[in-house]
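User: I'm curious whether this sequence folds into something compact or stays loose and floppy. Could you predict its structure so I can see for myself?
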Amino acid sequence: MSGTIVPEFHVKEELIYELKTRGISPIESIIADLHKLLRTALQTNTLPDSEKLEGINVDLEHKCCVSKLSSLVEMVENVEDEQSGLSITREEHGLANLGRRPSDLLIIAKHRT
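Assistant: Here's the prediction. I'll summarize afterward.
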């Protein structure tokens, strides 16, 4: 599957494109919906497992982790004393996510071999 784009990406990309061409930015709505889904999963104690991770593209996730790490390093280097609490919370969440993702990728790699 390396190098191929999954159909879900096409649907998402097409919908975002159509909304953008009409002057609508769907990002805030998408983020809000994803937060709701995650809150529900956390409330029901749903944890990642190897079966649920089957559809994950390891190469794409690796690239995402590298990109996220680069962004977080830049954010940390540019931290200001008067930075808002919301911005710091985003950075903390980003670091926490980046800490979990590689271990999930290792689970996937181990499960696939």
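Summary: The longest helix spans residues 85-112. DSSP finds four helices and no strands in the chain.
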